[in-house]
Design brief:
By secondary structure, the chain is of the alpha+beta class. It has two domains: 124 residues, no CATH class; 473 residues, Porin. The protein contains nine helices and 28 strands. The protein has a 20-stranded antiparallel barrel. Strands 2-3 form a two-stranded antiparallel sheet. Helix 1 packs antiparallel against helix 3 and helix 5 packs antiparallel against helix 7. The protein starts with a helix and ends with a strand.
């Protein structure tokens, strides 16, 4: 219907276009079948909107008179009126049938009729501009239409009514909006030179899951899949709700969205049973209390503060997904926000212990301390309850201040050291301050973590972290540099980086820098470096002392082949030297460790809503921490091929 109407208007406005004369049996004889307007004119003739001249010709090379255009306008109006009247009669007929429905066949027929009617209604939602154009034409050709006996005022009124109805249709929304994504992730590990590989997440690749011997990608092959469906209300006023349910086998394979998989040193990626979990489900509303802006969200909610205080780890280096990578800790509780002038205070609280899948896998286990595999560290407090507050406020000029205090409790206290005290609470507090001066940006922060047994302090020394960072950027480039120190007993559940396979490293201090340069509109270069030392001696849970050094470098080159295809190559090198001998097994003579990864990647946009990512990564690693059960060596030179297909809807 919509196309017919557009063709009519198009014909009215372009009737004077020159068209050569060729024969055609089912259209105007003087319109060739290879002409750009052939199909449109054929449909217009079939629908009775254009009849041509008495001799049956269209005569496209002849200028149309105003009276001829008036005839075409009236035909368009009559056709449009019959369409809307037909919809009214269909709706009435369906309503009459509903009163006497009795059989399954009747119900199915009604469903088919309603589907067809809905398609017609949806087709009318964009009629607004066309009706407006027809109203203008009616004004322009009013005299000619009247000479044809047309009641122009009635025509204008009908068009106005039609415009109102279309406007209402355009504003109509479904009560529930459904969106989501589907992901397929395939990981194939390979061994090389008689050695298995090691991923950036600390998993072995190229190993037989049963015999623990070296294997190729066809043996060490894992196929993971996950689909997420988000339902959200579309109401513009009152409380708003949303929820995301996820199905697949990916959560169990990674042991949760933020926790590195634990197990034996030969552990790797594994396919698990199908699982279902509720990512989030909440109701929110905005209001005002005592002149203060107020908003609240309750249910299964997500929140983060900052990387050094409270932010979920991103431990899925080979899987890109906003749901997994957003840094939010999910908990069953609520978030309340107050706006005071240009400042805002958020208060959040909830339970963490029951945020699990149908198979009992923790969705995002909240754990204090380091998550750094072989490098140890004080920690291990699994949090059951969370309570916190955050203040965000503008500072002087173009600057912003954030302050936060978070209390994390467990119902299962941990023991600190052999026969040491117990602890059941961790308090993390601190803040950061950022400044912007045109192309220059500076930010820094300081935070502490206090481990206690209720209110009795268990560990209140060497438990702080601070950083400062500055950046300068131009049109094609940016450069950042900074310094940080994270003391040995700092235990915040944050995400402040990775050194080799060490996540959230502590007992370190040093400088860092990163930058990027856009060589051309297709070629991008980025690089980073970090130069750390051990911050202190005498911490048995740390592999670092004042003789330890850690140097890490990364470089990546990306090339845009075309708008849909990107190729990239990257290299990472992290060298540990002078590690604390007390952290090694007896008989160890090499207290160094080396982690190198080379990665080749391809990203292809299949459509606006789907993307394919393929990458192959070679590892070249040597250390005395992780020893495979298959060959007993400390060299890891295998590879990992990953393929991710993502489709959004």
């Amino acid at each position: 219907m919509k196309r017919t109407f557009k063709y009519a208007l198009s014909a009215i406005l372009t009737a004077a276009i020159v068209m050569p004369a060729f024969a055609s049996t089912d259209n105007f004889p003087d319109v060739p079948d290879n002409h750009w307007a052939f199909e449109a004119l054929q449909r217009l003739k079939k629908d009775g909107l254009l009849v041509g001249y008495p001799d049956g010709l269209f005569r496209g090379n002849r200028p149309a008179s105003r009276y001829e255009l008036a005839v075409a306008i009236h035909a368009c109006y009559t056709n449009l009126k019959s369409v809307t009247d037909g919809l009214d009669s269909q709706i009435k007929a369906l309503s009459d049938k509903l009163n006497g429905v009795a059989t399954t066949a009747d119900v199915q027929n009604l469903r088919d009729a309603l589907t067809a009617l809905q398609n017609d209604v949806n087709g009318m939602k964009s009629y607004g501009e066309d009706i407006a154009s027809l109203k203008k034409l009616a004004d322009t050709f009013q005299k000619e239409l009247q000479s044809l006996g047309v009641d122009v005022e009635a025509l204008k009124k009908d068009l106005g009514d039609l415009a109102d109805r279309v406007t209402k249709l355009e504003k109509r929304k479904p009560t529930v909006n459904i969106s989501g994504d589907v992901n397929l992730l395939v990981l194939g590990g390979t061994s090389r030179d008689g050695n298995v590989g090691l991923s950036q997440e600390g998993y072995f690749t190229g190993i037989n899951p049963v015999t623990k011997a070296n294997a190729g990608a066809t043996t060490d092959l894992v196929v993971l899949h996950e689909g997420a469906f988000t339902f959200a209300g579309t109401n513009e006023t009152g409380p708003k709700w949303k929820g995301t349910i996820v199905l697949g086998n990916m959560l169990d394979s990674f042991n949760g969205q933020n926790t590195l998989k634990t197990g034996t040193p030969s552990g790797g990626y594994f396919e698990q049973n199908g699982d279902v979990y509720l990512q989030d489900f909440s109701v929110s509303f905005d209001s005002s209390i005592a002149g203060l802006n107020f908003n609240a969200e309750a249910g299964r909610v997500g929140y983060k503060v900052s990387p050094y205080i409270f932010q979920r780890l991103d431990t899925t280096s080979y899987f890109a997904n906003q749901r997994w990578d957003d840094g939010l800790y999910r908990f069953d509780g609520g978030i309340v926000g107050f706006g005071i002038g240009s400042s805002k205070i958020d208060i959040f609280a909830g339970n963490n212990d029951n945020v699990t899948s149908s198979n009992g896998v923790g969705l995002n286990v909240l754990q204090s301390g380091q998550i750094n595999g072989a490098f140890g560290g004080l920690g291990g407090l699994f949090v059951d309850r969370t309570l916190g507050a955050k203040l965000s406020s503008p500072f002087i000029g173009h600057s912003n201040l954030n302050l936060a205090f978070v209390v994390l409790d467990t119902i299962n206290p941990i023991v600190i050291g052999a026969g040491g005290p117990t602890a059941n609470r961790l308090s993390v507090y601190g803040g950061d301050l950022s400044f912007n001066f045109g192309k220059i940006a500076v930010n820094g922060g300081y935070s502490k973590s206090d481990l206690t047994d209720n209110t009795t302090s268990v560990n209140s020394k060497d438990n702080s972290a601070y950083f400062v960072k500055g950046g300068l950027g131009g049109h094609k480039w940016a450069l950042n540099a900074g310094y940080r120190q994270v003391e040995a007993n700092y235990l915040a559940p944050g995400d402040w980086g990775r050194l080799g396979v060490a996540r959230n490293p502590t007992n370190i201090k040093g400088f860092m820098a990163d930058g990027h340069y856009k060589i051309s509109h297709k070629l991008d270069l980025s690089a980073s470096g970090e130069w750390d030392k051990g911050a202190a001696d005498g911490f048995g849970g740390s592999s670092f002392n004042t003789n330890s050094k850690v140097n890490t470098y990364t470089v990546k080159l990306s090339y845009l082949v075309n708008p849909n295809l990107t190729l990239s190559v990257g290299y990472e090198d992290t060298e540990f030297t002078g590690l604390d001998p007390a952290a090694f097994a007896a008989g160890t003579t090499n207290f160094d460790a080396s982690y190198k990864w080379t990665t080749i990647g391809l990203g292809y946009g299949l459509s606006d809503t789907s993307k394919l990512l393929i990458q192959y990564q070679l590892s070249d690693i040597s250390n005395e921490f992780q020893v495979t059960t298959g060959n007993g060596g400390n060299r890891f030179t295998g590879g990992l091929l990953t393929t991710q297909l993502s489709v959004k809807f």
